[in-house]
Specification:
single chain, 333 residues, alpha+beta, Arc Repressor Mutant, subunit A, Alpha-Beta Plaits, 7-stranded mixed beta sheet, two-stranded antiparallel ribbon, 13 strands, 38% helix, elongated
Length: 333
């Protein structure tokens, strides 16, 4: 038993989680002892891994296929052939393994326990990095409002130029189950789309189908989030404040786990009637009502606004707009 426990502890160490009590248990639930040994033998080709583990190459290839479907193995083409490696960090382990098609409810429940018991402390460390891993993209803008929206923050253009697009279930809502927001709305683009289609965790979409999911997500009050860089985007998540592993801690503790967009909501006080629609739509509690000249009008808290634009598209008086407040170099190249 001690040897088996050591295997799973080593797997946790490989994704930089040596102090975690629950990450080894998650690995234990998803990988048997032989699979754990194979994971620890990576990276390598089938032939290299067969030699390291003393197994037949055909058996190793079959095991790798199983681990690929589970989200524990990733592959890339190299001059020496297909090279297999295990998930590289906590986020990749989380996002890939939760979508394992055969995952039992108990596996998701253990992830939920991890998010409650261990994730907040780890997130505090992650929040000290120079730049967060992800950033908000504004809502899909009408043509006349796109002059200052760059290609890598224009959700429609990102989809049209991706080459491939697929949809997966939201891993956070799949685990947390704290709200009734749509589940199958996370878009994978480019190589990530092909990866999820091959794994059986994603469904290929046409551009029109993907844009319809964007529309439905905005209608449901979900925030577009992507990788925090100006090129080679892999996903466009549609996140809620109840279940999202980042947003929930941004609201609760103010941790910098996701960058805002380059924009901020702005109120035209002459048009605002103080109806309060924007208060209900804002996931970050960044809007309040204040009295001005005997009438209540909306006020945006600049420190809390993430520039998602959800308030803009539902304002009945069109009193809200997105204003550019950060330069293009705010987004890492």
């Amino acid at each position: 038993m001690a040897e088996k426990e050591d295997l799973y502890r080593k797997l946790a160490e490989r994704i930089f989680m040596p102090q975690s009590k629950l990450i080894p248990e998650l690995f234990r639930m998803i990988a048997d002892e032989e699979e754990a040994r194979l994971l620890l033998a990576t990276p390598g080709t089938v032939e290299q891994l067969a030699e390291r583990t003393g197994k037949d190459a055909v058996e190793v290839e079959k095991m790798l296929s199983t681990l690929f479907r589970k989200g524990l193995i990733f592959k890339s083409q190299r001059p020496e052939g297909t090279v297999y490696r295990m998930c590289r960090d906590l986020v990749q382990f989380h996002d890939a393994s939760i979508l394992w098609p055969e995952a039992p409810r108990e596996y998701h429940d253990l992830w939920k326990r991890y998010m409650e018991e261990e994730w907040p402390d780890f997130a505090r460390i992650a929040a000290q990095l120079p730049k967060p891993f992800s950033r908000v993209i504004p809502v899909n803008q009408p043509v006349e409002a796109k002059q200052r929206i760059l290609a890598y923050e224009d959700v429609e253009r990102m989809i049209r130029e991706s080459g491939s697009v697929a949809v997966t279930q939201c891993t956070c809502r799949l685990v947390e189950r704290k709200c009734d927001k749509p589940l199958e709305v996370c878009l994978q683009v480019g190589k990530a789309a092909e990866y999820n289609i091959e794994r059986g965790t994603g469904r290929r979409l046409t551009v029109e189908e993907a844009l319809e999911i964007v529309r439905q997500a905005e209608e449901a009050g979900l925030v577009h989030v992507t990788m925090n860089r100006a090129e080679d985007t892999h996903f466009i998540c549609n996140c809620c404040e109840d279940c999202c592993m980042s947003f929930s801690l941004i609201k609760k503790y103010g941790l910098v786990l996701c960058d805002p967009s380059r924009f901020r909501a702005e109120v035209d006080e002459t048009a605002c009637t103080g109806c309060g629609t924007c208060l209900q739509r804002c996931p970050f509690d960044a809007i309040s009502l204040q009295e001005k000249d005997g009438q209540e009008v909306s006020r945006v808290d600049a420190d809390k606004c993430m520039g998602c634009g959800l308030c803009v598209i539902t304002c009945p008086e069109k009193a809200l707009s997105l204003r550019e407040v950060r330069s293009p170099d705010f987004i890492p190249s």
